[in-house]
Amino acid sequence: MTTNPNDQVHIRDLSFQLLYSEAMVRERVNALGAALTETHKNLNPLFISILSGAFVFASDLIRAFDGDCEIGFVKLSSYKGTRSSGDVQTVMGLEKDLKGRHIVVVEDIVDTGRTLHFFHNHLQEQGPASITTVAFLRKPSAIEFPVPVEYVGFDIENKFVVGYGLDYDGLGRNIPGVYQLIEE
Ligand code: XMP
Ligand code: MG
């Protein structure tokens, strides 16, 4: 991974242009945390972060939430390289009892909606008191599976992005801002 002064990053064979700076991301995530504080302050919500991409967002989001909360992680996957593979793999890692809990699902990006559609149905079967979904990014023109997403950081074009937890072939998760693929 290399960065240059033109606000581009290069990862393996691809180049990406800055879309949201670290400061813009911080401001938006703090606003989402404040909004969630309004609705969930006294509910001891259980944040469920979908691994791997959402772990950076989740760690900032829970620190922007002012109140008691818990966090858990699940592993799902539908992506290979820069394209959705079509299958959502089974849920792993959810050990908590969800019955009667106020769940806040934390996702890095909603693309087709397949992952969240699958996971939302899976959660609902376990009798939570409520399910609220927060996605850092969403690609509105890529949606194929309707899923309720109550809070969105940024709606973006249907182009591949990296940074702030999102990767290209495993790399780029540690970039503090968000960068969009430059299509040649
Ligand atoms: P679906 O199609 O299920 O996809 O909504 C959601 C998952 O796909 C991954 N994804 C991306 N990862 N840059 C990435 O690094 C992207 O532009 C991108 N679009 C989708 C992501 O893991 C998300 O959870
Ligand atoms: Mg993900």
Features:
about 180 residues; alpha/beta; Rossmann fold; 5-stranded antiparallel sheet; 3 helices; globular; binds xanthosine-5'-monophosphate; binds magnesium ion
Task: Please sum up the structure shown.
The protein is an alpha/beta fold and 184 residues long.
Order of helices and strands: EEEHEHEEEEHEEEE
**Structural Rg:** 16 Å
In whole angstroms, how far apart are the ends? 19 Å
What is the CATH architecture annotation of the domain at 25-80 and 88-157? 3-Layer(aba) Sandwich
Question: Biggest sheet: strands, sense, closure?
Answer: 5 strands, antiparallel
In the CATH hierarchy, the third-tier topology of the domain at 25-80 and 88-157 is known as Rossmann fold
Oligomer: single chain
Average pLDDT reading:
92
Shape: globular
Q: In DSSP terms, counting alpha (H) and pi (I) runs of 4 or more, how many helices?
A: 3
> Which stretches are low in confidence, meaning pLDDT under 50 for 5 or more residues running?
none
Ligands bound, unique = xanthosine-5'-monophosphate, magnesium ion
Strand order of the largest sheet: 1-2-3-12-11
Strand segment tally: 12
Please provide a written account of the structure.
The structure is a single chain. The protein is of the alpha/beta class. It has a domain at 25-80 and 88-157: Rossmann fold. Helices cover 21% and strands 32% of the residues. The chain contains three helices and twelve strands. It has helices spanning 22-40, 55-63, 114-124, and strands at 2-4, 8-11, 14-20, 46-51, 70-75, 79-80, 83-84, 102-110, 130-138, 151-155, 161-162, 178-181. It has a five-stranded antiparallel sheet. Strands 5-4-8-9-10 form a five-stranded parallel sheet, with helices on both faces. Strand 6 and strand 7 form a beta hairpin. The relative contact order is 0.21. The protein binds xanthosine-5'-monophosphate and magnesium ion. Residues 50, 53-54, 108 line the site of magnesium ion.
